[in-house]
Amino acid sequence: MFFENTKNNIVALQNKSQKGKINNMKFKNKTVIITGAGQGIGAEIAKIFASRGANVAINDINRQTANKTVEEIVASGGIAKFFPADVTNEQEINNMIKNIIETFGSLDILVNNAGIMATSKTDELSVENWDRTLAINLKGTFICCKAVLAEMKEKKSGKIINISSLAGESGGITVAVDYSASKAGVLALTKKLALEVAGFNINVNAIAPGTTQTPMIEAMSEEQRKTLSAKIPLQRFGLPKDIAYAACFLASEEASFITGATLDVNGGLLMR
Hints:
By secondary structure, this protein is an alpha/beta fold. The chain has 10 helices and 7 strands. The protein has a single domain, classed as Rossmann fold.
């Protein structure tokens, strides 16, 4: 454990962080939870929020990678703690949110990033794999959104950012149908929830990344990667930090009049 679950230690860490490498305190005294933050896009989102002064709650089912993200943030002078929970388990998520609020005193921003992806053809995709993908990518997003609403409604303030995908808008290039369907569902969920909670000053938006340099992409062959990157007008894959900067923007006051929107971060692969 890197931190004791006490407000005194959190205050001490906040004071210590000001002496570290943090130089942008835009999110000072704000608490953000990022699901699936053990690696890839989620880890980068966590690090950039921490670099801007946020208290960062790291969620992932992989304890090893999650703790690595925490260690890197703390080493840079930031504040972070690991909160294990399965996004498909409502009770675990409810307990996690309660623990985060008890630890940091509030919860201001939710980034739903946890997800899985496959590349199976539809006639090769099992019902079990379909159910698993929908459970993590869509059901998990719903459960986490639902879990934070009481806190955000009471404060009449909150930011929810759902990580969808270009595949949810266009159907995708190499991904399987379960992934595309789940990410399209995230976009619809985002719009409906944004409408429901706008009166509570809660902003709900989505980010639709294009092909991004993550372990999922690195698992592809070099030929597959070259074929994909050649189709992107900017001639490169997105970087995790490209998505992280977009998430920080949507969580900031500069985006206070944006809700129910989808921010495309795809290098021009889909233009609207």
